[in-house]
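Q: For a teaching handout, I want to show students what a protein-ligand complex looks like in token form. Below are the inputs, and the small molecule is uridine-5'-diphosphate. Please produce the holo structure.
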Amino acid sequence: QSQELSQVQIDYHAALQALVEDGTKMVGTGRRHTDRICRFESLCYSTEAEEFIYFHSNSSVMLPNLGSRRFQPALLDLSSVEDHNTQYFNFVELPAAALKFMPKPVFVPDVALIANRFNPDNLMHVFHDDLLPIYYTMRQFSDLDLEARLFFMEGWSEGVHFDLYKLLSNKQPLLREQLKTLGRLLCFTKSYVGLSKITTWYQYGFVQPQGPKANILVSGNEIRQFTKFMMQKLNISLEESSSEEYIVVFSRTINRLILNEAELILALAQEFQMKTITVSLEEHSFSDIVRLISNASMLVSMHGAQLVMSLFLPRGATVVELFPYAINPEHYTPYKTLATLPGMDLQYVAWQNTDREDTVTYPDRPWDQGGIAHLDKAEQERIIKSTEVPRHLCCRNPEWLFRAYQDTKVNIPSLIHVIRQTVKSKPGPKKQKWSGSLYPGKVRDAKCQASVQGTSEAKLAVSWQIPWNLKYLKVREVKYEVWIQEQGENTYMPYILSHQNHTFSENIKPFTIYLVWIRCIFNKNLLGPFADVLLCST
Ligand code: UDP
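A: Here is the structure, written as tokens, with uridine-5'-diphosphate included.
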């Protein structure tokens, strides 16, 4: 991967003249700063001021043109974490004529994706906040191809997982610090600023306690397209007919330890009659871990960032997440949410240590490793006595850190018991084909015919045709839902029907107008759209 910018020969004088005459052009998407990505031509960056610059000229474009709302609070989020006030993007404005008085610009010929990594030293954050969002931002804009260049502006050094970021494009990503070596004024010929949040599934608790995002938009299929890409780049082939089934225990070696790991491994091997192996980030290469996990039947690990590697598990595998004493698994669910995304097809099991005897605490460590010695005595005692960490905000809650960095002796019978509640027979990858769930289209040609019997009784015969896509599908169960609503009323009578026609007589009044809503349902829970409402007069 080359670090030099000028792979493409550009005519410097023409480029400079175009910049002076045309200025910057920006066209962005999104209604708010939290869902905005902007495409720029000739966005510049002063490495001395550490500011992006928008040059105004007669030809410049700025859409959206927000006026001072651009600062309330920002034009857009530079990382994929929603509305984080350390991750905002903005530019300062200058007339293009000011270029005469500025350092000579250095042009960046590559199409650039400009963004912030959120926490590049933590593997969960690397995948969830950076790699997946970058990957799908690049899929959103066709000129962000493998020849595009990533610019990370958060100001961190490469970090321990930089090799993973390098997989996303053929060009070496550049960090904010490195820009200084390129010049005093950089001008990006074409660039995109911001990251798609469409794949993120978790919010870390900056404004409310952590939990799944309110509106998750990603499913297992898109996650696996991403992992397939990563595995290709890592030269790992998916072994289709892997012979032996096995369990992977992903261990931590620095903190939050499993104290009886050997005993745990023996017990798992015996219970499930499978080879059981241990991996850790300290002792294995990333590729080796991916290779092992991508064929595993079960992944067992303490709660922690390494569990994001369940992204690479095959369909049908089981994730077993172990929680230290006093940590309620329901309150910390980044990996549960991942495993249970629609179409991930993973089984998820949480186990919690409920026995004080089996936990080892570290009150005297530094605060960021869970120490509590800096707190006053009463608070220390309260924390030590507490049996559950109350819900809290990110990121420095000492009671949470104290409990999160405990070591645990896993109670084997209790663990096997909870796994067995979910994994009845042999755990293991399902060698199954694509099993996407498809939704019905609208029902077609809906008709109704009314008949009146005397002054108080009436009937409504309603019929319709199957949705257009059904004739191409094998669907286990097809049902129809019909709502009958008297015009002007808020309530309706719902029916679930198996056939394509039905005569309604219950509660049908003569000389009344009814609205009839019909939709198709596949396999009990795949609800289609309602067809255009039918107006039926008795
Ligand atoms: N980590 C590790 N081994 C350890 C402890 C941590 O590899 O014994 C890694 C962990 O996977 C994560 C990073 O170090 O990528 C930061 O860990 P931390 O405990 O701060 O975060 P958490 O795992 O709780 O998200």
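A: Two things your students might notice: The chain is about 20% helix and 25% strand. The pocket of uridine-5'-diphosphate is lined by residues 122-124, 252-255, 281, 304-306 (CB under 6 Å).
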